[in-house]
Amino acid sequence: MRKNIITLICIVILSFIPNSCDNDLTEELKGSLSEATLTSETDAFALVDGCYSTLLGDGFEYYARDLSWLLDGSTDVMMGNAPETGRVQMKWNENEALGVWRSAFRLVGRANTAIDLIEKMDDAKFEDIAIKKRLIAEALFLRCLAYNDLTGLFGDVPLLLEPVKDAGLLPARDPVATVYAQIEADLATAIVDLPKTYDVEIGRATKGAAYNMLAKILLRQKKYSEAKTALDNIIALGVYDLYTEGSFGELWLESRRKDNEFIFIVMSQADDYNVASNHHIKWFSPWSYDLGWAWVGVPKEIFYAMHANDARKEVIIDDLSGAYYQYVRDYGSAISFYGFAILGKYSGNNRDVTAPGSPWGTYGRSKLNVVKYRYADVLLLKADVENELGGGPNAAAYAAINEVRARAGIPDLQAGLTQVQFRDSVLIERAIELVGEGHRRDDLIRHELYEEMMNAHLIATGQTNPTNVTQEYRLYPIPRTELDLNPNMTPNPVNALAIY
Amino acid sequence: MKKSLIKGLFPYVISRNVLKIIIVMKLTIFIFFTGFLSVAAEGYSQNVRLNISLHNASIQELISEIEDQSEFNFFYRDDQLEDIANVNIEEDDILLSEVLNNIFTGINITYSVVDKVIVIRPKENAQDLEITGTVTSLTGETLPGVTVRIKNTRTGTITGLDGNFTIDVPDANSILVFSFVGYATQEIQVESRSRIDVVLELETTRLDEVVVIGYGSIRKTDLTGSIATVTEENFNLGGSISNPEQLIQGRAAGVQISTISAQPGAVPLIRIRGNNSLQGSNQPLYVVDGLPMESLDNMIDVNDIESMEILKDASAAAIYGTRGANGVVIITTKRGVEGQSNINFSYEHSLDYVANTDAYDFLNAQEYVQVRNEDALRKGSPLPFTPAMISVIDKYGEGTDWMQEIFQPGDVDKYNLSLTAGTKDTRVYFSTNYMDWKGVVPNTKFEKFNGRLNLDQNMFDNKLKIVLSSTISNTSQNILGFRGSNFQSNIMRNIFKGGNPITPVNLDDWAEADRDIVFGPGIRPTNPIDIIEKDKLRLTNLAIISNLSAEYKIIEGLSFITQIGINVRNSKQRHFLPTVKGLTTTDITQGSAHLGQGNFTETNIENMLRYSKVFADKHSLEVLAVYSNQSFKGEGFAAAAENFTSENLEWNNLGAGATILTPSSYIQESKLVSLTGRINYGFDDRYNFSATIRRDGSSKFGENNKWGNFPSVAAAWKIHNESFFNVSFVSNLKLRAGWGITGSDRFGIGARQAKYNPGAATTLDSDLVRKGVVAANLGNEDLQWEETRATNFGFELGLFNERIMLEVDRYQKVTEKLLWDMSLPPSLGFNSILANVGAMENKGIEVLLSTVNVSSGNFRWTSDLTFAYNQNKIKTLILPEGVRFVEGPTVGHHIQVSALIEGQSVSSFFGYRYRGILQEGEVDALQPDAVPGDALYKDTNGDGAVNADDREVLGCGIPKYTFGFNNRITYGNWELSFFLQGVADVDILNMNNIVGYEFLTLKSSVNDMWTPENPDGTQPMGAEGWGRTYYTNDYNLESGDYITLKTLRLSYSLPVEKLGLSWIDNLTLSFSTNNLFVLTNYSGFYPEVNSTNWGPVSGKPPSDIVQISGVDNYAYPYQKSYIFGIRVGF
Description:
The structure holds two protein chains of two kinds. Chain A is mainly alpha-helical. Among the domains of chain A are: 162 residues, CATH 1.25.40.390; 99 residues, no CATH class. In chain A, 43% of the residues lie in helices and 4% in strands. In chain A, 51% of the residues are buried. By secondary structure, chain B is mainly beta. Chain B has 16 helices and 60 strands. The radius of gyration of chain B is 35 Å and the shape is globular. The N terminus of chain B is likely disordered. The chains are: A mainly alpha, B mainly beta. The interface between A and B is large, with 94 and 87 residues.
């Protein structure tokens, strides 16, 4: 008995000794990955795919909706009648551009992580070293894309080239010229390593896309001759042409996504409401028109500027016969009903794959792509650049703009225009052709026409408060959230003009 | 001669004066109120001593003498006294009982004592059996003055000086009831005996009750910490009570229990001494029969619970270390008792009705048409209703009042069958419970099955005790969305926002031509209640909890206890929504079915050594050491599909869906290792000291903070046991003080590590989804638990042998290292990092007053009053320079309602101050853009403009004062109890009202709206008049103070013997009501309401509730219940 007791006491004492130290308390995560596990070619692909996944934000932010607001929404090619029209009236609050700011920096961070980890990966892990280089080039392209968007909206921004590891290191702004130099250098690398085309995954970055972005960055700096080279390089690739196999409106159908007019598009997939779906692009059609979500459209001035037979009226629509509700259909004209024309490029009517004929069922989901770069833009930029370089339009300039006009079924541009006349014609052509695609803002700022055109637009459309769009409005406010949390950040002059 | 005056009027004579007569008449009629007038009457009545010197005196003279010397009155008929011979008594200091017994022995007259009235009456009949006996105490002393009564009658006597009694009983089935102050009442059936000797045991007072504390139990009198105890007899009863917390709502001071959702099966919200955490859980830790659990989740049936103890202060809860900061709820279930063998069955049926259907007044069809058209006119948009449409609408009358259409009477059926049996070595408790609860909204229901087996086995001559506690529960819940964030699946949203009185309940009631005119050709509009039957969401839970412990007594006073517990849960969620034309969006897409499943396993292994001994009769010592090792494992997956071959399949065959939606799964594990020690020392029953220390190590904590220490100390001083303290009526006077540190580790597993999320979806060809890898968060190796330091001072006062018991506690606690997702600058690419920052304070007072108002014979009235005050304050928040607050989570359609501000309470409503409506012809200097009909707000910061900077704290959604008042009155076989409960100093934002106004569905849209024709209107003009950013303003905020009659219950125990049902032990019928009335100024259904945006609809309460309490946004309506119950024991 006594022996039993002693044994028992021993067991008890043993049981009190904790199972030695902290080894037991190691936390193992089975459902997530860590830096140490990301080493293979598959992982490299996944890291780059992770960058692409950032482009649609959470379904609202960045290319899914917000960017179009910030770009065309602050110009004379978009207006609306919703409470959000404050943005069109330049009634901004300090966090107006927070969504894009956040998403773009998220993309910068993810691209930096991808570049860092892929560079560290053993070359032998890749079937072909070209794949490793291409993936790094894709990540570089995406980082440039983020900085392209950030510099266009905010000017000087922090240039981050390494993954963020420490929450305490708060970034400060770098001069926009430094950022442009970095973009140009990165794109130069990317152009070498990116392929011309992909067989299937056409949403990936290509040489053409990199050249196109380079041209845009150069144009912002008014480096016209270098921009011309970049544009000519795109054309010389021989990959792209205008879509002429069907009508202009058909280009915007879901089923035409693989057309070689597109140079870079943000793709979406419609199986699941929450997964890689860009349903919020439906921002562009009013609810009562095709059960889109929003209330924005194209100002009547643009519609009236169009040729009577312009094929692009298929996507800039006054006719309400396609409206969902009878009382709207009865109304006839969108311009008189909404005060603007419907922009049909991203409308539910284009859903010929996901939900032909029905706005219900797959409501809110589509395979409609968000177009970043397409060949019509390249041609019109070429016309613009030739006109600027030559002190007036040359034959190449006319050829470029008329190729676009011909596709729209309208007559060639009148010959013998002065440089200014031709410039204006190109701008009008670009406004009509590229409405809703986010080019107008850069165009007007590049030609120093932004303030003049915006004030005219606000007065013409009765959006009179405030009317004095000054140079400060060329940049968006640095988001208040960033300013509050980051003492190293400085505001833009427009921050002081922002409403609350 | 006053007596003779009365004799003529009334055959009964009562001595003394007229005033007394009237009093006594009243007493006779309302006999049970007598006790109310005299506290401690029973003690008085039986121990009166008299000095009597009478020679050959008549019985009437003796009576006068007794009445003069005591407070007794006699009640008799003159003729009854005629046969009594005159008496000779010469005694000093003789007991009244002895005098009476002497007189009434051997004659046909007897007496009984009813409080202070002695009733003289003839013996019932000749067949009466005369029973004699002696009453003694356990120590063998004879007990004089003991009341001996025949049960269910008023016949009785009292024992004489020698403890002897004589009483006549009608038959052998009579039961004698022996009662005496300070001793436990005993009942004995006469059977064939003529002599019955009785030994009375000392009554255990409340001070001697044993209270369960962490890892053991202690006499209440030796407690040093603040612990609330609620036992079965004080539990709330009612049809829809399904959660243990509801049993004690209002019963324990400082334990605030409220409703998150009133829907069937929803879990309540419990807060012990306020909120400690901003974003972690504020729920307490539960310990059920020794097994710690994070949540109860309907796993423990209320019928099985014997007592609940709430460890409120840090000195009591520190023994649970990193999990004790929110307090600990200890639940003890019923067990078998030696020598008892019972079968109990109970059934309850409850009828439930929406508490206040008239809370909201909706527009009828004509008013709706008019308001809509006027609104369109103002906006310059086309009129939605043409004259042709209006004439059709008018044809069908006032239209539909959806509030009348959606609700149904709910009902609850509850069955409980339990069996207890016990021998010396083996004791068993077995029960099975079933509950079926149909909600007041169609298609909401809750069903629960629960079984329990508790087994106690003693072995080796009581050296080894084996204790098993096990339960299995299976629940099924049909719910609809009732969160602010739910879209069309929320029926309340459909009514307040989209409720349209024009649409008929049944479309076919309208001629097709009429439908075409009003709704459009071929269009069949959906109506608000369509979705109720179509959207199907069911949650099921299967749980098994088993805890086995063995205690081995090594030597006297020293035991080793080992315990192995496991808690396994499987929960499933099924959701299906058919294709509904016209329905645009819900929580899931149309024609899709979703299945989800989770498995959770918690194991707990504990080894304990306990030593307890009393030295030299004065020093009592208990030493405890515990080593415990817990592990938690969760695993789950979800899958979904759509485009089904047939939607009749609902969720039953995902394989029939043509499109597969993204599946998901997860797995997570964590470990908690603890070492715990405690010393309890008591000296001379005067001083008690207690000290505990717990050392916790957790896998969740950062590498730099793996282990934490949680000490506590406490002391108590029992002044009433001091020799210098000599106030006889004070039975308890005790002071307590305690201090301790507790923690809260309620953050997600893996939260501290830098992780890469492998599920970032994209597509690069528009057909296939690719999953990318992205950095998910920045790691934080410093991450640790929230730490609460608390002090507690308390005093206890007991008067008249605990007939009046007062307990007051004052506490202060500060929680530091608050877990907080600290916002990062967006330029870093991450939203936030989980860190330990900031501090929060809770201060308060708690009062418990328990009284036995009346205890007289078979009449007893007891009351318990609880009162608590708690003030929460955010002490520090880490905010960027120049930022004065953090906005709380949004509610409903992205409405900001609250903010976290230093110096303010959590759940502070944060918004604008209403100033009025801009009248025609006026221009407002502060709001120059305002047009007539716009709401004006105060420029609170005086900067000359009205903007977001003018928002300020408007109120608080968490009540500062809570109270409960419980009364229990028993009289014979009847029992009446009522329980009042209330809160004060709380505000509610009724978003239903605002939304109904904004969407022009409520009458307020007509009555209160400012228009040029209605310049006195107080609400801004037009739909969206408030503008969503301005929703939160003091015009819309209401007081949520209330007092409710939570429970009113009347029960009757049938006299089973009399009815000849001797095979039944007891049979009780009861009728009760819940929430019968509520006194409040609140305009919604019921003031006990909370809505959250994203939290779960069942299971654990959502953590965002701490920041947005007091919002009423499409919540499930509260119910009023009428309950019939029957309980029978064999």
